[in-house]
Amino acid sequence: MSGLQFRALDIAAKVRGGDISATEVTKAVFADIAQRDKRLNCVTRPLTDRAMAAAAAVDAAVAEGRDPGALAGVPFGIKDLFDVAGQVTTAGSKVLANDPPATRDAVLVTRLIDAGAIPVALTNMDEFAYGFATDNAHHGVTRNPHAPDHLAGGSSGGSAAGVAARLFSLGLGSDTNGSIRVPASLCGIWGLRATQGRLPVEGSYPFVASLDTVGPFADSAGGLRACFEALVQTENAPVDVGALKVARLGGWFAENMSVPMADAVDALGERLSATQTVELPEVARARASAFVISASEGAALHLHRLRTQAQDYDPAVRDRLLAGALLPASLIFQAHRLRNWFRAQMHEAFADADILLAPAVVGEAPRFDQPLIEVGGKMVSARANLGLYTQPLTLAGFPVLTVPMKTAGLPLGAQLIARPGREDLLLALGESLERDGSAVARLV
Questions:
Q1: Active-site annotation holder among 21, 159, 169, 179
Q2: Any residues with CB less than 8 A from the CB of 108 and at least 6 apart, and which?
Q3: Secondary structure of the chain in the HEC alphabet?
């Protein structure tokens, strides 16, 4: 397979130095998408004109001696729930197809373009971000680049798989219950769910407003750090990685792992000297609360459209939304109360640790024709349970870095969790792991 020959930071360095042009990189990206994405189905709409104009602007800045930005010429994909000027924001659904085009870019799209990055495509997703598979009734299934008969994960699967396939170097996604962390793990790349509220959601179509977060994917830890710095418009301060204390999450997060996942997490824990174990209380209830809040808020957002356009929805998404509309108010209230309590418990978990380590998913990406995983000794739906380890953490809103671990088989990712606002610790630790080869993106 072909694809981008350099990773994000190398592309930026070569474009800034005049060794290659942003236009050359962008043309190669579109040629590659046209050739290879028919099989993978990462892209729903190429942004050809917009990308070529952005590339020309970067090249002009280089030629005139102006700073083209830290991400000069780096191509990025955009989950199709972010506004892109002139495009209809469909959130992966036929329901919104006749809405007027966006009049301006989402804030995060603007910030990446301001840093010199090139917006090349809108990417496939689960309809309205309600799923873990990127199996879309309107656009089809996004396939895992490492094994096209396996799931890429979701709901931001198009962005994650596109990075893993080297169609583009960076991707924008959203994460309500694991929609960055799950596909980053299954596709073997770096992903960051930022602290809730740290990155603006302005210009992105909501799923669950009280839980929604946004964040980037990248082909390297350094590329992820540079992307995050562009998104927050601030450079991270240096971090003494050697002084960081890492603890493993036990209990719920030590159960149900496949043998390859358990081995990979053990090896990463040993590398990080994570000898201490921390157990969070009531994790099953926290996951159930995330389910309840997601179902009820999602239903409330769509109820008016469901009354008139129910036939236009993906049937699986429609049924989940209708079920959410039937939840009693007392149950929703209890879920929010538990959320506040669980957040306090998360803060206490950092009493003697700077970083917490947990698996991102149970194991390797499931096959399309066998979409089952083992949980509690039973074979259950993968699409409903790929968020087993991500959904509970959703309630607290803490930042989480997905780390692509060293494995012999299909990719596997771990979650590194930090206190709110401490993405700098996660990203510095990620770069350290990348430098010594303990973690590296698996690109095809």
A1: 179
A2: 82, 172, 199, 200, 203, 204, 214, 231
A3: CCCCCCCHHHHHHHHHCCCCCHHHHHHHHHHHHHHHHHHHCCEEEECHHHHHHHHHHHHHHHHCCCCCCCCCCCEEEEECCECCCCCCCCCCCHHHCCCCCCCCCCHHHHHHHHCCCEEEEEECCCHHHCCCCCEECCCEECEECCEEEEECCCCCHHHHHHHHCCCCCEEEEEECCCCCHHHHHHHCCEEEECCCCCCCCCCECCCCCCCCEEEEEECCHHHHHHHHHHHHCCCCCCCCHHHCCEEEECHHHHCCCCHHHHHHHHHHHHHCCCCEEECCCCHHHHHHHHHHHHHHHHHHHHHHHHHHHHHHCCHHHHHHHHHHHCCCHHHHHHHHHHHHHHHHHHHHHCCCCCEEEEECCCCCCCECCECEEEECCEEEEHHHHCCCCCHHHHCCCCCEEEEEECCCCCCCEEEEECCCCCHHHHHHHHHHHHHCCCECCCCC
Q: Is 406 annotated in the active site?
A: no
- Spell 321-343 as b/e; 16+ CB within 10 A means b: bbebeebeeeebeebeebbeebe
Active site includes 79? yes
Residue 273 is among the residues annotated as catalytic for this protein: no
- Annotated catalytic residue: which of 155, 169, 204, 296? 155
The predicted-structure confidence for 409-442, as pLDDT tens digits, reads as follows 999 999 999 999 999 999 999 999 999 999 999 9
Single pTM value for the model: 0.97
pLDDT in tens, 76-133: 999 999 999 999 999 999 999 999 999 999 999 999 999 999 999 999 999 999 999 9
Catalytic residue selected from 14, 21, 79, 289: 79
